[in-house]
Specification:
Elements lengths: L1 H26 L3 H28 L8 H32 L5 H5 L1
Helix pairs in contact: 1-2, 1-3, 2-3
């Protein structure tokens, strides 16, 4: 049951964050800045997730995952999810913005 709930939370967080991040990128920051910060969030989440698993392997006593490790893993996965959502919602409009000022012959090639 806990795995289903955590999967549902990650999926719903990613879906719900799309319009918020798009609005933030349009109103307060630029798309480039949002993409840059989302990459940092994804990398940080991935590094912390990897460190958590390495520490768990080094301190392996044969027991199941304790609650503190589960909280860390879910937090780092949530960070990766937020970073991915910020990236996905802004990368396509950012690419389209790059083509606005190009002459038509450059776009066709």
């Amino acid at each position: 049951v806990n795995r289903q709930i955590s999967r549902m939370l990650v999926a719903s967080a990613q879906i719900l964050i799309y319009p918020v991040v798009g609005w933030l990128a349009d109103v307060y920051t630029s798309r480039y800045t949002m993409i840059k910060y989302s990459m940092h969030i994804m990398w940080l989440g991935a590094v912390l997730l990897s460190v958590t698993f390495v520490v768990k392997q080094l301190m392996d006593t044969g027991e199941t995952w304790s609650c503190s490790y589960q909280v860390f893993v879910q937090t780092w996965l949530f960070m990766c999810t937020i970073g991915q959502a910020c990236y996905q919602v802004n990368v396509m409009p950012f690419g389209a913005d790059q083509l606005q000022d190009c002459p038509n012959e450059n776009i066709a090639s």
